[in-house]
Amino acid sequence: MIRISNLTKSFEGRTVLDRIGATFETGKTNLIIGRSGSGKTVMMKSIIGLIPPDHGEILYDGRNILAMGKNELKSLRREMGMLFQGSALFDSMTVLENVLFPLDMFSRDTARERRRRALSCLERVNLANTGDLYPSEISGGMMKRAAIARAIALQPKYLFCDEPNSGLDPKTALVIDELIHDITREYHMTTVINTHDMNSVMNIGENIVFISEGAKEWQGSKEQVISSNNAALNDFVFASDLLRKAHELEV
Prior knowledge:
The chain is of the alpha/beta class. Helix content is 41%, strand content 24%. The protein has helices spanning 40-47, 70-77, 95-106, 111-124, 140-151, 170-187, 198-204, 222-225, 231-250, and strands at residues 2-11, 14-24, 29-33, 55-60, 63-64, 80-83, 158-162, 190-195, 207-212, 215-220. Helix 4 (111-124) packs across helix 5. The protein is globular, with a radius of gyration of 18 Å. The termini are far apart.
């Protein structure tokens, strides 16, 4: 579980995060949603320690990341998996080498054990026969699945996903959503997803935090989204739905 309280951040006098408090639950897909510029990206970067907040507390199962020394922080980072927006695979490495990368850096297992673990992760995301291929030789959806395999290679307790469906068609995005959801349950991770994709919200949104203009406006489940009487959330949800339908008609 990750718990944040009174999270506040300003840049050049402009408040980007305004005293945000939220809980991200273990074994569930926790989504941070909001319009572009709402503060959700800064919020995620603050949670993982890339941007120090001005005020607040960030607890990883009771451990305050903001009070950690260098060694403690390094140890915590080994418990984190990251799925980046553009997959961020290394072009010069094969798919298998990409998955092996964090294992080679941080695992104390033998080379044979690391390879077995990497192959197991690729099999888990249905890429068992792609290990010798390079990222340029596979599709965007396959690249995203390879990135998920790399993210779970070290069996993290916490998984962070930044716009995981960016650039994917709706069918492939659904596959990625369900894969992240299933892996979250299977590995009993605390998964935090930064997204503005309403399809993802309604498909796997077990615990949703809605950010508007730097403040937390609403928190609940996908079942509660439609029945919410929060005006800002309704504007975001129904505007997103109209845009999606308009795009589908154009296509």
